[in-house]
Amino acid sequence: MFERLPKYEFKYEKIDTNEIYVIQPYKKKLRTMNWWRRPTDSGISVWVFDDEERGLKAEPFVMGMSEMIDRFVEEQNLDPRWLTLFFSMNPPPMGVFYHLKMMNLDPRGGAWYREVKTRMCGWLCPAMLKYFALFPYEFYVWSDQR
């Protein structure tokens, strides 16, 4: 009746790297198709980012990640118009950060992560592999906005 998805086991090595990646996400309204196939403004906005160096344009954060960024922005009292996020496999030396740990790999692509303190969950798409060779088991996200 239901297709059983294969159980994936993944191995990872703790990679000692000091690489820090920077993105500048911004909010973008989603456009949806209504039943008569006309694009409409859904009123829903998600965080997206561009990275020309990696060929990414308006890459959206979906399935929980936009809500996670919203909460981070609200908790830190950040200005969403000038948001800059840093992410790395190593924690920042000081300040407030989100620590994300992998819950499982998605067999259709991407990976599910849970933030350690807030327990919020979200999915990151295969675009993550443009930054890391494999989906990292854990990584850290922070902002340096003052």
At a glance:
The chain has one domain. Helices cover 8% and strands 40% of the residues.
Q: What do you see in this structure?
A:
This protein has one domain. Helix content is 8%, strand content 40%. The protein is built from one helix and nine strands, in the order E-E-E-E-H-E-E-E-E-E.
Helix/strand layout:
Layout: E1 20-23, E2 26-33, E3 39-51, E4 56-60, H1 65-75, E5 85-88, E6 97-105, E7 111-115, E8 121-124, E9 138-143
Antiparallel strand pairs: 1-5, 2-3, 3-4, 5-9, 6-7, 6-9, 7-8
As laid out across the biggest beta sheet, the strand order is 1-5-9-6-7-8
Number of strands: 9
Report the average pLDDT across residues.
Answer: 84
Distance between the termini: 54 Å
Total count of helical runs of at least 4 residues: 1
- Which overall shape is indicated by the principal axes computed on the Cα atoms? globular
Give the percentage of residues in beta strands: 35-45%
For the largest beta-sheet, the strand count, sense and barrel status come to: 6 strands, antiparallel
N-to-C order of helices and strands: EEEEHEEEEE
Classify the secondary structure makeup into a structural class.
Answer: mainly beta
Q: Measured on Cα atoms, how large is the radius of gyration? A: 17 Å
Provide keyphrases for this structure.
single chain; 146 residues; mainly beta; six-stranded antiparallel sheet; three-stranded antiparallel sheet; 9 strands; globular
